[in-house]
Amino acid sequence: MAHAHSVKRYKGLMDWLTTVDHKKIAILYLLSGGLFFAIGGFEAILIRLQLIKPMNDMLEAQTFNELITMHGTTMIFLGVMPIVFALMNAIIPLQIGARDVAFPFLNSLGFWTFLFGGILLNLSWVMGGAPDAGWTSYTPLSSTMYSPSHGVDFYTVGLQIAGLGTLIGGLNFLATIITMRAPGMSYMRMPMFTWASFVTSAMILFAFPAITVGLVLLTFDRVLGANFFNVDGGGNPVLWQHIFWIFGHPEVYILILPAFGIISEVIPTFARKRLFGYSSMVFATILIAFLGFMVWAHHMFTTGLGPVANALFSISTMLIAVPTGIKIFNWLFTMWGGQVKFNTANLFAVGFIPTFTMGGVTGVMLASAPADFQFHDTYFVVAHFHYVIVGGMVFGLLSGLHYWWPKMFGRVLNETLGKWTFWTFAIGFHMTFFVQHFLGLMGMQRRVFTYLPNQGFDTMNLVSTVGAFLMGVGIIFFTINIIKSFMQPKGCANDPWEDGRTLEWTIPSPPPEYNFKQIPLVRGLDAYWKEKAAGNTEMTPAEPIGPIHMPSPTIIPFVMSVGIFIAGLGLMFSGEEFSSSFMSFIFNNWIVCGLGLLITFGSMLMRSLFDDHGWHIEPEEFEEEGYKHG
Amino acid sequence: MANVHTEHGNGQLPQYPEKATLEGRNKILAFWLFLGGEAVLFGTLFATFLTLRNQTNEGPTAAELFSLPLTAAATFILLVSSLTSVFAIQALHRHKVKELITWLIVTVLLGIGFLALEIYEFYEYMHLENFGMTTSAFSSAFYTLVGFHGAHVAFGVLWIGVLIGQLYKKGLTVVTAPKIYVSAMYWHFIDVVWVFIFTVVYLLGKVG
Ligand code: HEM
Ligand SMILES: [Cu+2]
Fold first, then answer.
1. CATH code for the domain defined by B17-207
2. Counted domains in chain A
3. Does the C-beta of A360 come closer than 6 Å to ligand 1?
């Protein structure tokens, strides 16, 4: 058992269910994130179709509410976050010169809990109605009195489970970056994407437990009849707003910081210059994260916290613009005088800068509390956060995906299709959301399912809907590009851009299971670029060739997540009266919930009792070209 | 099997077996980080409790409900269990497996004693004082905060119990040592949380 080759290696589906390899987990994250992104995108199209003309009756108000709730929740928690995690998983260990993450088992567990949480949330569509209280689920709207269906339960329980996965993932990346860096890779030599992921993970660690508690409280209110947010019983609905935003504002920076990291990799690579102001970039990232925890009440200016609180939160919010501005200028100065190559990855990165800046500018406008009384809950806010999330985050992700695709899959994406993707997506994006600023200023409320004609809203709403379709076309181009890339043989160069600066470009594309045959010695920032400048073609190894220790694949994380999933369903329906008395019996007596927990804790116990000593790859088995997937 | 990893270099267990391997060091570091997250979790629960602690909805108030002798006893038991857990880790560093196991058993027993008192307390409130989860916002916040802590103690009892079993079967190795060490960290953490609960919930509740 403890010995090298007795480990069972699975094939096909079992391989994917049991893998603990960060590169495969990255692909799993990408696949499921992509799937949820498609679902969320489809919901967005339906929303825009409903709003295409005044007094439209394509959708009912109830369906519309479900769609906006699920669109926001899905995109943020199940679409964008997992794609960030996909890139973090695929790239961080490579950038720091490691063979895997610190906890391969936890890595897999984090993925499966996220996936089952996401599935649970989306099951609501076929199990009695989706949540309809908005992605912020404000109480009392989300209480059983105003949301009597199980929709909001799917929200609380599904997000709880998915959030657990995110938390596990964040913890794992923190530990990985602290302990697994190659010799010579000091903190101030870490690539910016690794830095951004590091800070993001710290934010996850300190922000997610707050929403964990918030969701528990809301669940208890709804399932056990507790009184946290129930004014009748002495509860306080504003408490939910505080807890939600104490988590929620850091969450929006959890989304954007990795995008900052990606942009900080792509721009220097294609400007063929080192990143301008690396240390100020690091400093700004940390400062943003720090400030990000002290601004939450800017979402609550109109709640009535009073002028002092509003003034303080107004100022702290505006302060964030300073480190953000530092970053913007650093990117611009990086390109200044560089030999800028405008391929797809870089188009998205360069396109990011003005687009995100516009979102920042409206952010500062919103941060002015008196003005926010006018903007709040209008399409102006919708325009703001889509400029930062889509124009920032999604541009960043698309840039990163085009940039690292060759590393993840061994195939370069097609440039012509890539440029079509960029231009359709970018033009569609601005069409959709630019006009929404004005709709908001003219008084169009967000979250309303229709509007009266002749208020000056009609044309702009039409433009917005057409833009949304154009964005959809962009995503279709991207999908075609992906499919085409898989039709060509694998095996692009280690450094297909030829200007790679960091360690991931020193190893095969895709990398072999063990990443580095020998852990490299890092001699400076932009380790690979530094070697290239010194006339070397490879990194200097920091260790002799020898057998490599690998963790064993395991099904336990998957089973644990199934257990949590069952327990979640059991909890949600514990008070339900089923038509079958047997069903009522097992749910109402907490048998289903208990069974789920038993599965989870039982498998945890198995994991603790039976030590996994892993296995070794011997030097004779090293594959020169990399390994085959699946 | 496990003894492959028991020995280290010269055949001796290193003095700090919990930090002898990369896995062990990673585990301890990650556990510190995890406790940081747990601190936010309990911080949010405390904030909730502080917001709602006077919202008694015409149900029992804290001053009417709490009995300080009982909770003082619970506090004493839990503090002593932290001490015995320190003794366990000292035994671990001296590689005295029997002593280690004994101290862990004492710790677990004290934990069970604490839980028994808590269950008794909850039972009294619910059945004699008509103070349930749904009574008031104060009651919801009380049961959630104290209950979360109690669940942590219960998990700790089970966890350390399992580890005692592993010590019997596998002995003290560089694989089992980090597990014992992080479980002790966990135990101290929930002890500290209890000190805050004792202060914020019970003492503050008594003075009004
Ligand atoms: C300079 C930086 C930023 C400032 C000053 C800022 C400011 C604000 C303010 C004051 C609001 C509240 C508006 C209202 O509801 O009346 C808001 C909403 C929002 N912001 Fe930002 N923001 C900034 C950056 C970002 C970033 C980077 C993201 C995400 C990547 C983001 C995402 C959001 C979201 C999702 C909302 C709306 C939440 C909702 O009510 O549903 N913001 N922002
Ligand atoms: Cu915010």
1. 1.20.120.80
2. 1
3. yes
